[in-house]
Amino acid sequence: MRPAPFYCLLGLLVWAGSVSAAEPAASRAKALTSAELSARIDKLINDNLADSNIPPSSRATDSEFLRRVYLDLAGRIPTAEEAKTFLDSVDAEKRSKLVDNLLAGKDYARHFADIWQGLLISKNTDARRVQRPPFTDWITTQFEKNRPYNEVVRDILTATGPQDKNPATTFWLTQVTVDRMTDTIGKVFLGSQIQCAQCHNHPFTGWKQDEYWGMAAFVMKVAARPPGNKQTTSPEVRETPKVVKGKKNLPESVKFVDAKFFGGAKPKVKETDPLRPVLADWLCASDNPYLAKATVNRLWALMFGRGLVHPVDNINDTNPASHPQLLDELTAQFQAGGFDLRAMLRAMALSETYQRSSKPVPGNQEVLSEAYARMPIKVLTPEQLFDSIVTVLGTPDTPAAAKRAAAQKKNPNAAGPRQQFLALFEGDPDADATEYLAGIPQVLSLMNSPRMNAPSAAVRLTQGLGNAEAVDKLYLATLSRRPTGEEREKALKVVRQSDTPRQALGDVLWALMNSTAFASNY
């Protein structure tokens, strides 16, 4: 079992001295092309490997790259047809073209909406009645449009009005309490566990309790009216003229201090001025490094299995980056490029560092993953696993009860098949991407699933094909590659020895989908 993280004992962010005295990174950096930034990533990683005398693994095969980049950028494996088209292509630019196509697709936007919804929308019991789909749809649209990320963050931080008119208010409706609002802003947008200073001065850094409550003061006037028992109008978010000190959403540890930027100055504001726009102006400014650094570190973790600073929401001087110069340059490039998520992801995906095989070579077998000598093997997230199963088997029917609940608006978050699956496979949100958290209940649910055991999917996938072609198709549909000669022969032996070959192909499909390889991103 993974040990509990001791974030508070590692210290809080100590940025003020090192950042305020320096020239803003955005003003120093010239925006590089994606190819130039990919090359820069590789140089900094490779220089570190050379200094440590660590050999890198070889380049990933086309099938390895194909499956990896689909899972990381689209949140699912490719279909058999998509896999065959890519693997059979002789285009020298097919990898870069695939990355561009994935980043421009709807699956990319939906996948990253899944990730950001998990980061921003609280699942606490106080918010169980708040509809989450409006926010999911809204942020999916932002990713589809490729809006500058700092503008999206600004919209979330300043969201006001009824949810049905402004879905970005969902963030505030689900966070409920001032400390939850502050903690989430710290983790997601600052990359810092600032809650460690909520109740007392930190014992190992210079941060005082007032630092935390100075940030909390920016959201102290938020009045979020989530749905109630007899409420018929849309839930609403607004900002009151003054702080109401007796509000129920204030924790016992509350301190009332002047608003103060974390590690920075106190803004000059009147008591009745809206404070969230002031916070957004500071945090989303093009030369503020905190949002950019937290974001590129999180993107790196999504693509490479761990952040340059790990854990991703614990950026501080006591937890240094594995490659500090690379983190600084990615931060500056993200700012110089206008907070363009796609451009940053493209540069990462087309770097040779990302395109390395996960297979070790002599000299890097025991090397820690933060060296990036080879690609770590990541476990599929519940969302990736469900959507990959759907890619193979098709979309399952929604239970009638869930349909009725949604239609009658009795449960705005009625559990359809995907929600039920995610609830069963949900693990520790702070777990390493390489850590397998599923247990016997999850494995048995897959093995005994009626959909997994029905031969209809195999029949559909292999219709009109001979046995050898059918086996190839099943491998393409599940593992995004053709079988080796040995694998093909073993599968064909099962089919030949069966009285019902189509059923036997269903058994082959079942075995592939319940394999470790299917549940892994390598």
In short, what is this structure?
The protein has 522 residues and is mainly α. It has 26 helices and 5 strands.
Describe the fold and architecture.
- With 522 residues, the protein is an all-alpha fold.
- It folds into three domains: 143 residues, no CATH class; 176 residues, no CATH class; 140 residues, no CATH class.
- 50% of the residues lie in helices and 3% in strands.
- Strands 1-3-2 form a three-stranded antiparallel β-sheet, with no helix packed on it.
- The longest helix has 18 residues.
- The relative contact order is 0.14.
- The N terminus is likely disordered.
Blueprint (SSEs and pairs):
Layout: H1 7-10, H2 16-20, H3 25-28, H4 34-51, H5 62-74, H6 80-88, H7 94-103, H8 106-120, H9 133-145, H10 149-157, E1 161-162, H11 170-175, H12 178-190, H13 209-216, E2 222-225, E3 236-239, H14 276-283, H15 289-304, H16 324-336, H17 341-349, E4 378-379, H18 382-393, H19 400-407, H20 417-425, H21 440-447, H22 450-453, H23 456-462, H24 467-479, H25 485-496, H26 501-513, E5 520-521
Antiparallel strand pairs: 1-3, 2-3, 4-5
